[in-house]
């Protein structure tokens, strides 16, 4: 009887949790456009600029994913009535003030994938900061030919796949075969991404998955690895600094063997009518994968390096979406950059599989924290509750048997 009651209650709890999960409605409604109102200009130049707007109850988050220059993302928080305007003839020429919103945003944040470093790790340390300049090649993502290979949109998920190939930089006299891929995802609610390492995203974030796939390496580099330089641009006090930190988690259910999340947060030091504004963040798990299967056996490390202040804002943002947007406001911006390298000592370098990845989240507000899933909670409940129930049942049985024996002895004595 006790077992029946226990499992009945446990089933009810599980069904309630499942019902809450199913009924958790989308926090934002997504709408998106490729090259909005551009037409023939973008078709001729093979451009891809995606405008994603995520409408909430009180505000709208705008994301612009752009490949007209260096791959860039602009995030802007506005009222629900704001729209994006692009002067396409000026925009394709890389001119400033060619992209704007019809209302001044409450907050903006942007990133640029500025450089890809190929470094010859002759000492097999996995660290780019131990390598001298003669063993480093710099590739500029804007020098790839970028093609759109997939685009899908619903009210709940927007997905864009871009492929960069035929690298050719005439200035540096470098050309490479092979490709890099960038996969973008926009979300409407809190959940884990379907892309390994299954990052936890919120309705206020977008995910970028970078893949370096059979990219030709320098023939004189026998132990090549790759690193990425990312430029981070935030509104706020230009004399402050972003914060880089790591968070431990208790659960590796979604990414086996990984119990840490690294993140960069912008300072929340801007006040508007006495209310502190929220900032932005970038978040990733320190794991890279060396095969498309992305399992534990093909994992290696991601290593990040200290944040570096970028003083020449205009030069840093040149040839990117951010230059077209910020322009004269650059002196008021907090601009920093960070390098992230893929690989660790003993993993036999990039040439082992010719494949490496980095997956990260760009978001607004407070990064979400990992929590145990309902399945894990149920398993823990059974693991703790069942032995406890057995102990209680055994104790009750022994007590009842003892009382029966006592009653039997009393009757015999009479």
UniProtKB/TrEMBL annotation:
Q: How does it assemble?
A: Interacts (via lumenal domain) with lysosomal protein MFSD1; the interaction starts while both proteins are still in the endoplasmic reticulum and is required for stabilization of MFSD1 in lysosomes but has no direct effect on its targeting to lysosomes or transporter activity.
A Pfam family reported for this protein in Swiss-Prot or TrEMBL: NCU-G1
Listed GO CC annotations: lysosomal membrane
- The regions listed as transmembrane in this protein's record are 372-399
| Protein name, as recorded | Glycosylated lysosomal membrane protein isoform X1
What InterPro entries does the entry give?
A: NCU-G1
- Keyword Membrane among record annotations: yes
Which UniProt keywords are present, listed alphabetically?
Answer: Glycoprotein, Lysosome, Membrane, Signal, Transmembrane, Transmembrane helix
What does the record say about its membrane topology?
Single-pass type I membrane protein
Its subcellular locations are: Lysosome membrane
The UniProt entry's sequence similarity note says: Belongs to the GLMP family.
Say what the protein does: Required to protect lysosomal transporter MFSD1 from lysosomal proteolysis and for MFSD1 lysosomal localization.
Instruction: Tell me what organism the protein belongs to.
Output: Cephus cinctus (Wheat stem sawfly)
Signal peptide span: 1-25
